[in-house]
């Protein structure tokens, strides 16, 4: 019967894991990859689903998951209304996180009524401080999936302690701003200028969530992280050794997580762009293509986009550019020819492939024509590049990207375009700067060699007996009730 293959020993129970994902493709990606892996192994999975999503890409992604894995149960949850006027001009994804946080208590009766009984909950870091107390009340073990770098997890663990030391979040205290660098014990000092900008102001919505989650995650039963030990030894040792928070929960590194999608967006979308792209890639020389993409929610200003365009043109390399002009994809109705200016697409025809559509990035990075990746530094992207041996030039755009850039540099998987503009600052990077940096990274044989080592290590980590492989098995054994 269903799940029967799991009953290995007499004491084993059939797990039924309830996933409570957050919002944003970068947050859904690692969760869905874990769900796909579990479901393929016959583990019973339910997924809390909130529709409509913020972006169209997320809805496609949910639909793809349920189409590919029909045994995965969909549990619909409705959001309680959130008065957006309470929050001045917040990012739409942060607002969605807040709405989810204020709605998850509705899950109590759902969990209680579920058959078979829910044996474990896995939620996203952004919802942790709200989900952990519910799970405790229901006496269901609660695990957290951390969707970015272990270095960020270390910062998240340390930040509330930092505030306490500075007494910054003391309601009575006058200070509300982080004034200096943050030295994460056993990791490194994060310069003030590289912190996620919201964290500089303790009154920001994001910062309140981040602080609460950082505190409550210590009560979780375990934390899954999409990374692997080789790339982030220092933060992992610091977290596991209790150097940041004594008695921190077990940290299971399980990356690089691989895509399990069998129905690709290109197939469902069916606009033919994927086959055009494959054909174009096939015509380019080995390791010649500069792949440019800034994730799902970083959009550059128009004048900056024009400079990037000039830089790619001047670099002399073929390039593939996934271009976004808005944070939320639904709002992006700009015409490429208008965005890039008169004559640009004609001039680069054949050499430059520019698209506003979805690309299968993980697969694309494995293509032998791809020579480097100009990226915002989203951790999913950085790991996908490292497992394909593609050097990354990190141009951080917002949030955790500069911390990720520091992690990528110390891992030897990327270079960081330090000092380039980010998160609304006015510094414009010129086309000449872009071209020069791209050439520098393309010619950097030392970096290419260290990325090749990381690719080997990534493969080893997930192969039988590797660190991520063993952690995943240990975690699944725990779900099955092993002592
Ligand atoms: N992605 C993709 N195709 C696209 C855009 C994004 O496959 O056209 C995937 C990408 O491979 C990665 C994720 O979306 O797995 C982006 O996550 P990341 O953490 O890099 O950045 P974020 O979008 O959260 O800023
Ligand atoms: N994060 C965290 N704890 C939280 C919420 C977020 O550590 O409670 C981290 C996580 O790495 C997340 C990042 O902070 O990805 C937020 O960065 P960003 O502003 O770029 O948002 P995202 O791209 O993740 O949507």
UniProtKB/TrEMBL annotation:
Against SUPFAM superfamilies, the record matches this protein to:
UDP-Glycosyltransferase/glycogen phosphorylase
Q: Has keyword Glycosyltransferase?
A: yes
Q: Which GO molecular-function terms appear in the entry? A: UDP-glucosyltransferase activity
This protein's UniProt keywords: Glycosyltransferase, Transferase
| Homology family | Belongs to the UDP-glycosyltransferase family.
In its UniProt entry, what is this protein called?
Glycosyltransferase
